[in-house]
Amino acid sequence: MPTVTSVAPATRAWLAVAALGAGLLHAALAPSAPLPALIVLVAIGAAELTWAAATFARERPPLLQASLYLALLPVALWAAVASAGAATGTGTILALQPLPLAVASGLDLAVAATVAVVLRRRRPARDSGAVRFVLTLLVSAAVVSGVTIPALGLTSAGLSAVSVHLQHSGHH
């Protein structure tokens, strides 16, 4: 069976933007997390942001086959922590906002699903032109921004950004 040697630019744009959104959310959740979760969230966020940049820059996303499973890792970790919290009766998910975690998980699932489709097709990428690439980039950026920005606003980093802005009311 042939292997995937490259991924269409439009598909890479979608993968990169979705991973960027998930990485930003994981990084924004880190400051309000306890130390062990902070370390995990920073590591996951940094990995997603690095992968997003590399995916956008290369013809083939790095670790394409492994990224199918790596994109699901944060979702599995969140599910494990939520299950452990429910089982112990604390009812918390490390006291982190659930909506940003859910949005990041949704973006990670979208990355995994897209990678699965790319791997399943196993055919060489076609360059469908600049117009399709730009349209895909615009639509994916709009969709990811539309779900990521409100979720970022619910993180401690997002709430701090609003309060800092309000403290500096000299700008009009």
Automatic annotation (TrEMBL):
Give the stretches traversing the membrane.
37-56, 68-87, 99-119, 131-152
Q: Which UniProt keywords apply?
A: Membrane, Transmembrane, Transmembrane helix
Protein name, entry field? Uncharacterized protein
